[in-house]
What does this fold into?
Amino acid sequence: MPSRTAPEHLACTVEDGVAAVRLARPDKLNALTLPMLDGLVATAHRLRRDPSVRAVVLSGEGEAFCAGLDLGGALRDPVGIAGRLLPRPWRGTNTFQEACWAWRRLPVPVVAVVHGHCLGAGLQLALGADLRVSTPDARWSVREARWGLVPDMSGVRSLTELVGLDVAKELTLTARSVTGAEAGDLGLVTRVAEDPHAAAAELVGQMIAHDRRALARAKRLLDGAVGTRARTVFARERRAQLGLLARMDRSAVPGSTAGRGTPAAAAPAPPAPPR
It folds into this structure.
């Protein structure tokens, strides 16, 4: 599918069901402007409504994934900051938070591909993805304390989910940088690879081989399991599974009778999933 119109400094194309969303401000190491935050929100919401999309890959053009928020530029627009800090009651997030959290709302897997700088707001954007693939030499940092700020773009929730409270405190309170390799050891990064785009493509290929509705329900279950009572999670599992079982094509299940009384052992094996 050809490129679709995207906001300034943001590119989005969809091909074979995979949406490639790229931060496109390479001369500034993809530092986020206020309009770019709006664009991330709008793009995520649009992709959420697109049934042709099976997965999303987030990346940055040029030498970095994202060097954080363009704080100097943002501070020149105090009215713009104030408006974007106001939460939307129906969502529970403001624009800064939704720019990262909106990717968690998508019913499809989202993979962030990280190289170069992944700092501050950039790190929080990467944490909004379901999975992260990073080069070993990328620089990751919860950087806000250096500017007298706190991570406020949904990063507090995402960070503590991934690495636990003590490591989240250490990274936040020291604002130290870690390499992609160390980020992998800490649990910030899902996979470390010299070629993160190729590794992300492999992951995406494995995931989109499966039923889209099953992936959507699994993602929602897993996201909702953190901090929730076990009894509640079990009930959600049952409801999700019942809906999927009701629409399952039993003839496609390994070991089932493949119609016309054919014994399961004689039924042809299901095709291997596409790579």
In short: Residues 230-246 form the longest helix (17 residues). DSSP finds eleven helices and nine strands in the chain.
